Amino acid sequence: MNETAPKARAAIIPVTLFEQNCTLLWCETTKRAVVVDPGGDVPKIRDAIAQSGVTVEKIWLTHGHIDHVGGAAELRDALSVPIEGPHIADKYLLDNVVGSGANFGMTGVRNFTPDRWLDEGENVSVGELTFDILHCPGHSPGSVVFFNPAMRFALMGDVLFNGSVGRTDLPGGSHATLIKSITEKILPLGDDVGFICGHGPGSSIGDERRSNPFLTGEA
User: Fold this and answer.
1) What global pTM score does this model have?
2) Chain-wide mean pLDDT for the chain?
3) Segment 36-71, tens digit of pLDDT
4) Is residue 143 a contact partner of residue 121, using CB atoms and an 8 Å limit?
5) 33, 52 in Cβ contact below 8 A?
6) Is residue 39 a contact partner of residue 10, using CB atoms and an 8 Å limit?
7) Residue 219 — very low, low, confident or very high, per pLDDT cuts 50/70/90?
8) Distances in Å between the alpha carbon of 144 and those of 109, 169, 173, 197, 214?
9) Which of 87, 93, 104, 105 could form a disulfide with 64 if both were Cys (CB 3.0 to 4.6 A apart)?
10) Domain range list for the chain
11) Helix H segments across 63-159?
12) What is 8-216's CATH number?
């Protein structure tokens, strides 16, 4: 990491029966933080915030699937902070959080509208950290990736995984569109970029370019 770059730390909080990687990310200089994809288990998320000693300023959403947004409305109310993301193409998912939750026995979830939709070319910030927004449809129509060029780091959501890619068999999904997003927007960021993804261990773009069977043509 560049010594002059802003310093960040992150804590991953697995939530819901899907073991989704809710991420608490903060700026080391200011101790200002963001919660990325609070899918549920809000008390667990709030405990992690308290243990980290940081002040959460925002909630960021990579996309609208229930395991990433189920706790967003509750956490927004509890912390009185705005929700930013995903892209407006996922509005249909946020309008149906309750119905989606019912399919998996998740109660207490609420439909909601974010305070800000995000689009390609915009950026978001917390403390001294700024992330570029990449609109990467395929897993869902409104999936976004948060990329910090200075730290060579991304929050990937369910676009690209360690050894896999996001599932595309859900309504609004398209495997061809997802691979196009990864090929045209993610891979060009550079092999040295590390990332946290929505499920499982993180990776780097270089490792995935070399060994991910969905990118090497072996899947």
Assistant:
1) 0.96
2) 96
3) 999 999 999 999 999 999 999 999 999 999 999 999
4) no
5) yes
6) no
7) confident
8) 22, 18, 14, 12, 20
9) 93
10) 8-216
11) 66-69, 72-79, 91-94, 97-103
12) 3.60.15.10
